[in-house]
Design brief:
The complex is a heterodimer of chains A (112) and B (121). Chain A contains no helices and eleven strands. With 112 residues, chain A is mainly beta. Chain A starts with a strand and ends with a strand. In chain A, strand 7 (67-72) and strand 8 (75-80) form a beta hairpin. By secondary structure, chain B is mostly beta strands. Chain B has strands at 3-6, 10-12, 18-25, 34-39, 45-52, 57-60, 68-73, 78-83, 92-100, 107-111, 115-119. In chain B, 38% of the residues are buried. The chains are: A mainly beta (112), B mainly beta (121). The A-B interface holds A 31, 35, 37, 39, 41, 47-51, 54-55, 60, 92, 94, 96-97, 99-106 and B 44-47, 59, 61-63, 95, 97, 100-101, 104-109, 111-114.
Amino acid sequence: DIVMTQTPLSLSVTPGQPASISCKSSQSLLHSDGKTYLYWYLQKPGQPPQLLIYEVSNRFSGVPDRFSGSGSGTDFTLKISRVEAEDVGVYYCMQSIQLPATFGGGTKVEIK
Amino acid sequence: QVQLVQSGAEVKKPGASVKVSCKVSGYTLTELSMHWVRQAPGKGLEWMGGFDPEDGETIYAQKFQGRVTMTEDTSTDTAYMELSSLRSEDTAVYYCATGAGGSPHWYFDLWGRGTLVTVSS
């Protein structure tokens, strides 16, 4: 199985400041079809995960443009340009280039 | 607007089975690729398996092969996940989620609210 490793484990951010989360995969997520199968989710307290970003850098419907994703191969980053109070929760990256789909261990974001 | 409504919490003894349901509204189940993801208390997310509409087969994560069965009742637009031979490590919230992006490179764009299954003697 592909192992997804996220850093840091937790992040405390002042509202209005940027935040960045790293995700590294044990194998390249670039498929021969040209797509890179890397996704980002946010799980707010007491809620199911919600999709933020698909295929590295595409924001899902309704996701604010302060969220952006980047990266290639095995190294990926989720950035929040200006953190808001509603952004607290645990962020997960996920790969689906190969089954089983696997998730990172999560990065908990809290507000200072 | 698609909604996924899951069944209520369950408490089971070790060795028993549990069957969790996920009812779809606002869409028909045949138009969806339904998957199941679980989350142990305070832990991360684990994909268990899902339906591949391209070949009509259900794919299970190897870890759960032989213990999990995912079925669908298209007459009621309800998906089911049954897990047998339960052990304490199966205590988790079980989510149904719709798969997008095409087989087998799904991502999960809509999630149910989850069903807590507690395994305890």
